[in-house]
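User: Predict the complex with alpha-D-glucopyranose.
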Amino acid sequence: MHKLKLVSKLMIPMIAAGLLVGCGNSSEADKANGSAASSSAIAEAGPASSSVDNTTEDTSNNTAETEATSESANTSSTIEEDIPIEIKGITERSDEMRDISAKELVAEMTAGWNLGNTLEATGDAGLSSETSWGNPMVTKEQIDAVCEKGFDSIRIPVTWGNHVSEAPDYTIDPEWMDRVEEVVNYALDDGMYVLIDSHHEESWRIPDEEHIEAVDAENIAIWKQVAERFKDYGDHLIFEGLNEPRIKGSADEWNGGTYSERLLVNRLNKSFVDTVRATGGNNEKRLLLITTYGDSHLPGAITALEIPEDEHIGVAIHAYEPYAFTYESGESWELFKWDGSHNGDIIKVMYRLDSTFISEGIPVLLTEYGAVNKNENTDEVVKWTESYVSAATKRGIPCFWWDNGIYDQQGEKFAIFDRKNLSWYREEVVDTIIRESYSK
Ligand code: GLC
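Assistant: Here is the predicted structure with alpha-D-glucopyranose placed in the model:
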């Protein structure tokens, strides 16, 4: 543990209204506005973010969710006092598999970061795929820099389907497996928590009746090999079975799927869990993350998720919320500023995840979130990040920023870390992530 120059805000409730001192970014005023605006409907669409849900179940939660957003409309004011934060930084590697619950393990995790557009890039075959989307090869120095900044958890998205032999063996290219293991070890050596996921498999992992038998067979074959390779690793290594399982281009792609698609995703979750557990060793107790159709947080999708009877299960969800702010859409309803009036959109998601999973003892991880840089709106992204991460942290949900390495090139400009220069692009955003994550 070492001290970070960053400061956290100690919120001291005041009886009289209107007293707010200390450092600048008050989220309280923003939050108060958020409740009033929470019900204002914005047409949204996009990856794991749409609030347009055509499922009928959704209305059942609306009243509770609207009430939940009023938690942010705190009428009492606060004094904010700067207190120093201690961040973990690089710590000892642990290869222990402790007998602790999923909830206890997740409670240890603080701030998460995605090594995006790298080991899941599909631009080339073989080992060269790692750099095929423009990112440099992963180095130990990059991971050290991320860890030293305060990120104690890392998600390593991996595409496996591009690196396997033909059916029925689907043998993973051993060189690819070795490279993944090498990168995983960079992070474990720093004492980090590491998520390996199975990403960008949409070309074959199609959850419909026509494909499901073959999909299930390949999913099982891949996870069996990955689980075998890592079965002796300790509890800092976590597997996330499916990234955004969905039918690309289908009508409900970003709406949480149809009834039958959700059932098929449940089937894939189950075979992932059964396969990993059957490999034995530390995999019997490893934390496994299952997910909803498309990693959706929408009510229809999360209530349809079947949780296997197993003590070491968590739920992975993606929420780029609200889409109007976090992505570039070019639509008339796009948001560039974060004035707090849409804060209720964030609170609603957190409430929903809490009431569906966390209150039932199932931990949740937001394994993807983030906001793109648009028109150099860093100050606005700082405010959004504060609203988002504080709301998640309050519920005990660790968040993993989606960093695809894209900052000033074409594409979704999610990057916060400059991997070539080992420096930070939007450092105020990064500091906000760290400060809010450590305020738990
Ligand atoms: C999903 C996609 C990834 C994309 C990200 C943000 O994870 O798989 O390609 O960059 O969402 O849009």
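Residues 47, 200, 243-244, 368, 402, 404, 412 surround alpha-D-glucopyranose (CB under 6 Å).
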